[in-house]
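Reviewers of the previous submission asked for a worked example of the structure-prediction workflow described in the proposal, so we include one complete record here. The input consisted solely of the amino acid sequence. No template or homolog information was supplied to the procedure at any stage.
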Amino acid sequence: MDSAPNQSTQPKLFPSIIERLNALEYSQRTEESYIQWIKRFITFHHKRHPRDMGSEEIEAYLNHLAIDKKVSASTQSQAKSALLFLYKEVLQRELPAMENLTKVKADKRLPMVLTKHEVQAILSRLNGTMWLMASLLYGSGLRVTECLRLRIADIDFDRLEILVRDTNGHKNRITLLPSSLVESLKAHFQEVEILHAEDLAKGFGEARVPPGLAKKYPEAGKEFTWQYVFPSTKLSVHQQTGVVYRHHADEKTVQRAVKKVAKQAEIKKEVSPNTLRHSFATHLLQGGQDVKTVQELLGHADVSTTMIYTQVVNTGGRGVASPLDVI
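From that input alone, the workflow returned the following structure tokens.
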């Protein structure tokens, strides 16, 4: 990893970045990611202060990522978002267009999808919390990060709904809660509540909450309803504030668990936790659900993103039967 910028840069610039990220209620994950990209940008330009640079330097760095580092389109996009955030939100500067930017082309491969039998083969080999997480990925169409960031208050057992919060503070959405998971989730909540009570007894028991909520209700982070549905097994200290939090579980544990059981089930596909989300969308469409509803459940801003699953639904090339099969 690139080294951090010198200390003369960090004390003034980085607290301002963190303050602005918190004010706009960006997630801790996004905060950490943006900080790292900004540090790498500064280091790439020999530790010059960003206020002494601009579009030309941003363009040079993003081209370096594309040409020299050969990063993915999503990685380059994330780096670009972090740097544009720095200039627009922190340095209060409007930048001219980057006309010579080399954009990494997005991978247009179809999403990997499991059959219902393969989904069952994976879920049947998991147990406990990992089974519950994987079941929500498939049963509710959640992204891995969305599943891990769920709060107790986000689960509505009566309406069989899950509130999925947009961690960038833009638009939340509602997705379905499978009725078959209600009793298992309620039992899981009891375990989380016991852990939370133990944390409180030790002087901890706080989960990180949006800055606006924390300002209005300073004790909100210690309320059970704001605890993560899938809490981490370890307490962690926030680097900037020194506050001890109980964060959510690590997504790597979910990734490893799903990959492991997929291999055990001898599934000859590249399987990840998000494959379960792709399968959720595809199986709904196969069952006759309309694209607009699936788009809303998945939280896609544009229906064209959802339409890619219609290509997976069709069997054979473009859904056309081979003449060999009809003679």
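The domain at 10-90 is CATH 1.10.150.130 (DNA polymerase; domain 1). We consider this example representative of the routine output the project will generate in years two and three.
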